[in-house]
Amino acid sequence: MMRRHSALLLYIAICGLIVFLVKAEWINAYIQIVIMYIGINIMLTTSLNLVNGYMGEFSCGHAGFMAVGAYVTSILNVWFFTSGNLFGDALLRPSLSIMLFPVTLLIGGLCAALVGLLVAIPSFKTRGDYLAIITLAVNYIIKSAIENIQVIGGARGFMGMRKVVNAMVETVSLPWVMIWILVFTGLTVVVLHRFVSSTFGKGVVAVRDDEIAAEIMSVNTQRMKLIAFMLSSGLAGIAGGLFAHVLGYINPGSFTILKSTEIMVMVYLGGMGSLGGSVMSAVLFTVLMEFLRPLQVLKWVLIPLLLIVLMMFRPEGIMGHRELTDVFPRLRRMFPSREA
Amino acid sequence: MDIQSFFQNLINAMQWGSFYALIALGYTLVYGVLLLINFAHGDIFMVGAYIGFFVATFLLGSYAFHLPMVLPPHLVFIVTLLITMILTAGVGVTLERVAYRPLRRKGAGRLYIVITALMAGLILENGNLALLGASRRAFPDLIEKAVYTIGGVTFTNIKIIVILAALGVFVLLEAIVRKTKIGMAMRAISYDRVAVPLMGIPIDTVIVFTFILGSSMAALAGVLFVSAYPVLEPYMGAMIGWKAFIAAVVGGIGEIRGAFVGGFVLGFIEIFVAAVFPSTFRDLIAFGILLLFLSLKPTGIFGVARAQKI
């Protein structure tokens, strides 16, 4: 019993330690932000891996769903919990924001999942390159739509989330954004792990390997695609909501193709169809980006170069369709195995 | 919209359609032969524009080392076009040799080559930014701008040159692909890539030729583009490249006719949307139409759905 949950307990212990260190102000604001970015990147990478890795599609518009989540969550929070000239007085007491923050995050995720339908429904008929275009177009459409809604700032961006965060901290003095990022990162990985281990997950992998054969073997491929796309975009939406509250300011320019490309780089670096690889590469990539910061533009020459070299010598990415438990069988004692 | 502004928009749409078509061609040619989406192609267009800039300024004698004689601007324009097309074709072929061919030889999946292409595009963009800096450059005026007005519709000679160039390229490429031996080899590869090498067709030569064609057309588009809109910046190829790619897909990727029709369709949609709605809606409506279109006819205008054997 203890062993089954040891990984979870370990994660909770690490999170507790991080929160304690932040609270005690032993780690500075910069490192805190890096940790938060790592969490968000883990969420984005693992969720994209569900579509690009497990289902074998080529979705290149993940940042669009992130944008939907970011905007919906931010607007709800600013509308409910802060007084400003945009929405008038706060609808609810600002102190309630502690309880309702995860709710608004989930609503943001839900909206992103619904927008995911824009990709999921065409995916019934199209595959491969044409679907790639559709994801690309959806990313542009979302960005362009936000730019055209002047009420929420249009291209100028949307702010006010800082006040919400402050309201939470004033009520109970804890690093709330950090806590929620840690919680949702853990949740994302657990949900995705459970999902790909379930019969649904096997169905998704079957769609990747051979769609027609899967269909013949009574896999409901449309349902698989629908669920995979909606889950993936929903999780990206939650990550977006958290991202908005880390920065305190969002604008459509943060959710371009470049951002989507960045997430894709992390997925392929870590290896397709490997959650462990995605988590690892999200950590590695975020830290690497911070170390390479002094190089400025050259950073964006080095990272693609790194990926090209990787594609030459190890095209399946660092982990490539394997989990940590496959590489280190002993770990199986800690994680409930996929076959269980 | 009255008839006058309709024709005005028509000319603008034709010009933008020509740019999209010329770039979309590179996507479609490479896709037809290799089944590879060469995502670096938009940046090849950018590289072409930059090479054109340096060739033109060199020919005009802006550097310490210059030609012994002074060339008239018209000649400079033609020489610039030719040299740029050759050099950019070199860039395209280098990319193929360095990045794509090793992967192909190893038999890596298509997806990995696509990712490599995407990354190569980023390297070109940001390498340029790191090398030449973020400052924008102005392309010198090589063609003396002449403005004509016919029945209230005004247009410049550059617009006419762009449209004529696109049409000329279309005729030329159709001829190459339909009438020549190497064109036949290109069609053969896209028809059956397993049998073609067995028939003694040098597959690598055909692929290199495809890249030469695609890249030189992108270079042509690049030089024409900066002649019409004389600003160069490292990210100029990204947006127009993605859009040209969309044009290629709308037309049915792998089809030369498709690239042209798709390019013009996209040009028309963009310009007329901007004419009727506020211009910020341009991308929204253009991509919305694309999404709708692809949901209804996933293979594009000229694409033919291939039956899959089980």
Task: Calculate the mean pLDDT score of chain B and round it.
Answer: 86
Count of DSSP-assigned helices of chain B:
11
Distance between the termini of chain B: 53 Å
The computed structural class of chain B is: mainly alpha
Q: What is the radius of gyration of chain B?
A: 20 Å
Instruction: Return the domain count of chain B.
Output: 1
End-to-end gap of chain A = 14 Å
What is the subunit organization of this protein? Answer: heterodimer
- The low-confidence runs of chain A, each spanning 5 or more residues with pLDDT under 50, are none
Q: Could you give the count of β-strands of chain A?
A: 2
What is the largest interface, and how many residues per chain? A-B, 41 and 46 residues
Largest sheet of chain A: 2 strands, antiparallel
Strand adjacency order, main sheet of chain A: 1-2
Described by the principal axes of the CA atoms, the overall outline of chain A is globular
The level-1 CATH class of chain B: Mainly Alpha
User: In the CATH hierarchy, what is the architecture of chain A at level 2?
Assistant: Orthogonal Bundle
Portion in strands of chain B? under 5%
Decide which structural class fits the backbone of chain A.
Answer: mainly alpha
> Strand order within the widest sheet of chain B?
1-4
Could you explain the architecture of this structure?
The complex is a heterodimer of chains A (340) and B (310). Chain A is mainly alpha-helical and 340 residues long. Chain A has one domain: ABC transporter involved in vitamin B12 uptake, BtuC (Orthogonal Bundle), CATH 1.10.3470. Chain A is built from 14 helices and two strands. In chain A, helix 2 packs across helix 12 and helix 3 packs antiparallel against helix 4. Chain A is globular. The mean pLDDT of chain B is 86. Chain B contains eleven helices and four strands. Chain B has a single domain, classed as ABC transporter involved in vitamin B12 uptake, BtuC (Orthogonal Bundle), CATH 1.10.3470. Chain B is mainly alpha-helical and 310 residues long. Chain B has a two-stranded antiparallel sheet with strand order 1-4. In chain B, strands 2-3 form a two-stranded antiparallel sheet. At the A-B interface, helix 5, helix 11 and helix 13 of A face helix 3, helix 4, helix 9 and helix 11 of B.
